[in-house]
Structure formats: C-alpha cells, structure tokens
Design brief:
The complex is a heterodimer. By secondary structure, chain A is of the alpha+beta class. In chain A, about 25% of the residues lie in helices and about 30% in strands. Chain B has a single domain, classed as CheC-like (Chemotaxis protein chec), CATH 3.40.1550.
Chain lengths: ~190, ~200
C-alpha cells in the first residue's frame, strides 16, 4: 500500500523495503494458525488464529476476551485431573486445563469478568457403546461445562456430541469459532 | 522411536514378533474370507505417551474406516483395525459380492461388513497370541467409525491414558491385491498381558 501510494503521488521516492509492509502481512492474511495438538493448549494475542485438527472424543475449549484481544484454545483428552494417571501435564484434562489457561490469559492481560467460552468436540465416534460410563466424549464435554460454571465463565456457545470428528478454528479477533465436520462448515 | 522409555531392544523385538504372529494369522483369515492375496509388512512397535497416538500413524486428516474392539485377557487391551476408505469399500465388496462405483459411498451394509472383518481379524490375532500365553483372549463386539484418522485414534488414546502413562502399540500393516495404500492392525496390550507376553517369550 505504502509503496504504490508513494509512486502514485509522484514522489518518485519509493520507500526502501522496510519492515512497514512486512509487519502488516501476518495480521492481514491470518495465514499462520497455531495448531493445538492433543493434550496441549495455547494462549495468543488477537490476530493469531488457533486451530485443532481432528477433534474426536477430545474437546476443544476456547476461552477469550475480545476487549483485551487474547484467547486460548485447549485440546483436552480426558475428563478429570484427579482420576488421571499422568499428573505432569495439566493440559490433558478438561478441568485442570481450564484453570491453567485462565491463569495464563489473565497474565496476558485479560480481565476475568470479560472472559467468555465456547466448546466443541466430545463426539462419540464408535457406535457400539451403549453405556454412558464409557462415553468419554460426553464425559469430557460435561466436565468442561461444569468447570466453566465453577469458574464463572459464561459458556456462549457449544457444539458437542454427534458421531463425527471436527476440525475447529478459533479467531480471537471477534471470538468466532468455525467448525468443520466432513466438508461442511458452521460458525458458533 | 528413539525414546524407548525403559524398554530393552530385545523386549521391543519380542513385542514386534507378537505383532507379526498375530498379523499373519489375521491376514490369513481375511485372505480365506475374500479369496484374494493379502500382503503383510514387518510389524512396528511404538512406545510413546498416550497423547501421541492420534498423530503417530499417518495423516490425521485422512478419512479412514476404523474398527475398535476391546481385547479381554487378564487385563483389558485395545485392538484397532484402520482401513483407508478405498480399501474398506473393496473389502466390503469382496465380502458381500456387490460392486461399488465412483463416489465410493459407504452405507449400512458396508458398516456391518467392515465390523465383521474387524471381528474376524481381531479374533484370529488374539487366538494366535492366546496360544502363546496359554489362556483365553477374546475380543469384545466391534464398533465401527468412519472419520478423520486423528479423531478415530483419540478413542483408544483416551482409554489407554486412563490406565497408564506410556503405551505400547504394535502395528502390523497389510495390503490386499489391488489397493496401493496399506491398512493396519493396531494392538495395544494392557500392562498385565504385556508382561506375560515378555515372560512367555523369555526375554524378561
């Protein structure tokens, strides 16, 4: 932009290729999405997009503060920290990852009262299991909702259950959560 | 895997051997069923944290058909069969005598055909191992899912993560005559069976 304007105004003075242009590119294209792997979570400032590929029974918990422009996305695999074997990674469990993520968001400048949450995932991929005790997807999303309630973070929208895996993208700029199931896209 | 996390080279070889024995029995069973050649690769043995399962076995966004079964012995292990879509449709065609065409749509009949193939595979795999271990091993009724590989593998991953930190996954790849991309059988033994296997093979 800057370059073409200068040329059009007849300055003849083409700006040297400074960082001016370069620093616009990432935020304008939003191409660089951070992919949140299983049992990981990331918190980022606004233009950065977050993404979870292939959410099956795992649940993708997005917590964000639009005013402060920070957001976090977690990919939790199991419901409860207390029931789990591995105590080293809090990001593995739907309840503990919320506590850790909220702390980190506040460190990044979010205000607790402005935090909102959206969750997706928790599908039951395999059809044969009838009892709820084995339905890890349902347990994951239930525990996530329960913990959000306990932390007094309003759950704005959810897309949980079903039998299909999801790929989700979270945009911290406006808090939109795009969900792709198969070839179909939806936003919550 | 570089990080063997406490497993000796010889123990890993023994677990691979189990995969080969089971995989060969399973492939013979499929070959008899569909009257086609089934080729089996040498088994791999993965030792890793449970959360790495969904990303360890190929492109996690690829759409595949998966069959899941519990492997009951003294403990409860996991048994999975993952088939690329085209191979799943072909297998179902050979079994039911139908003929699928271009869009490769997967319907109810294909689901139950694939469930049956998974069941036969797992049963023969486990009965081969049970002969080594000298006690009964049985698969549970199968469950079928079609979806992203990563999403499907999350199910065994979270089941295993509830039981133990590190998992041992034995993978046996196989191809049938006219498909290029291999499907694979994944056996994740529970710690009790694992120890028993290693003891019976005399490597502990």
């Amino acid at each position: 932009m800057l370059m073409t304007d200068d040329v059009r105004n007849g300055n003849g003075l083409v700006r040297p290729q400074s960082n001016d242009l370069l620093q616009f590119t990432p935020s304008m294209t939003c191409k660089n999405e951070i992919i949140v792997g299983v049992a990981e979570f990331y918190t980022v400032p606004a233009p950065q997009m977050l993404m979870c590929i292939g959410l099956g029974s795992c649940v993708g918990i997005a917590i964000y503060d639009v005013r402060a422009g920070v957001a976090g996305l977690a990919h939790a695999m199991l419901p409860r920290f207390d029931d789990g074997k591995d105590k080293q990674n809090a990001a593995k469990y739907a309840d503990s990852v919320i506590y850790v993520m909220v702390d980190e968001l506040i460190e990044r400048g979010a205000t607790k009262a402005n935090l909102r949450a959206k969750i997706a995932g928790g599908a039951q991929m395999f059809q044969f299991i009838s009892s709820d005790t084995l339905n890890i997807g349902l347990r994951n999303s239930d525990v996530a909702k329960e913990t959000l309630k306990k932390e007094r973070i309003p759950l704005v929208a959810e897309d949980v259950g079903g039998t299909k895996g999801r790929t989700v993208r979270f945009n911290p700029t406006d808090g939109s959560y795009s969900i792709q199931i198969g070839g179909e896209y939806s936003w919550i | 895997m570089v990080d063997n996390s406490g497993y000796k080279e010889i123990e890993i070889d023994a677990l691979k051997e189990i995969g080969s024995i089971g995989g060969l029995h399973a492939s013979t069973a499929i070959a008899n069923l569909i009257k086609k050649d089934v080729m089996v690769e040498v088994s791999d043995c993965f030792i890793a944290k449970a959360e790495t399962i969904p990303t360890s076995f190929g492109d996690r966004e690829e759409i595949v058909a998966g069959v899941y079964l519990d492997a009951y012995s003294k403990g409860k292990g996991c048994m999975m069969m993952i088939l690329p879509m085209k191979m799943a449709v072909k297998l179902s065609d050979y079994m039911t005598g139908r003929q699928h065409h271009e869009p490769w749509l997967f319907d109810e009949e294909d689901y139950s055909a694939i469930a049956e193939i998974g069941n036969i595979c797992a049963s023969s795999y486990l009965s081969a191992i049970s002969k080594i271990l000298d006690h009964v091993m049985l698969p549970s009724p199968p469950g079928v899912a079609v979806g992203m590989l990563g999403a499907i593998l999350q199910y065994p991953a979270s089941l295993v993560a509830e039981m133990s930190d590190y998992i041992v996954a034995i993978r046996t790849e196989f191809t049938i005559e006219d498909t290029r991309y291999p499907g694979f059988i994944l056996y994740i033994p529970d710690p009790v069976s694992q120890r028993e296997i290693l003891e019976k093979l005399g490597v502990v």
